[in-house]
Amino acid sequence: MSTTTQSQTTGNEVGNWRAGLVGGIVGAAAMGGLVLAMNAATLAVAIPSLYALAPPPSPGTGLVVHLSHGAVLGVVFAGIVGTFDLDSTAVRIGAGVGWGVATWIGLAALVMPVWLSAVGSPASPPFPNFAPPSLLWHATYGAVLGGVYAVVADQI
Fold first, then answer.
1. Tens-digit pLDDT profile for residues 82-126
2. Angle at alpha carbon of residue 45, lines to 42 and 48, rounded to 5°
3. 75 near 21, Cβ under 8 Å?
């Protein structure tokens, strides 16, 4: 008696997670550059404080955490792109900006102040924290994410 095992690809993948990962990292790097230029304490204290990695201030640690967040959110973005079959570059960039604004509202303005307060961070902002510079940073993240995703999705 013999047993045969077969493997089948169903083609049910939604979005290109690799493109989302790359786009998320590149977008987070672009955003990180703006944050460093405009308010370095956000990257040096607030972001690493989420995981009890600051104080003391550490822009490098903050950047690693920030790039990691960008990568994960980029993979989620890939799922959104795939779910809604967003296939043009302009639409993907627009969706990226929308995703950046959504992360600003949900994560930066609402979750982050509560989280930082809960861990006793010295960089805890008020709740809610709808800071206009942060909106610019997140919209930039999304635009770069969407653009990079559009360019690399068919290549990786």
1. 999 999 999 999 999 999 999 999 999 999 999 999 999 989 999
2. 100
3. yes
**Which is nearest to 20 in space by CA: 112, 151, 111?**
151
Taking each continuous run of H as one helix and of E as one strand, the counts in the chain are 6, 0
For the chain, the domains span 17-152
pTM for the full predicted model: 0.90
Q: What angle do CA 76, 111, 24 make, to 5 degrees?
A: 30
Coil, strand or helix at 122: coil
* Tokens standing for residue 131: 């800071």
Which residues lie below 8 Å from residue 79, measured CB to CB, with a gap of 6+?
14, 15, 17, 20
Q: State which amino acid sits at residue 2.
A: S
Whole-angstrom distance, CA of residue 117 vs CA of residue 115: 5
Give, to the nearest 10 degrees, the angle between helix 89-103 and helix 59-83. Answer: 130
The radius of gyration of the chain from alpha carbons, rounded to an integer in Å, stands at 18
Alpha carbons 142 and 75: distance in angstroms, whole number: 12
**Distance from the first to the final alpha carbon of the chain:** 42
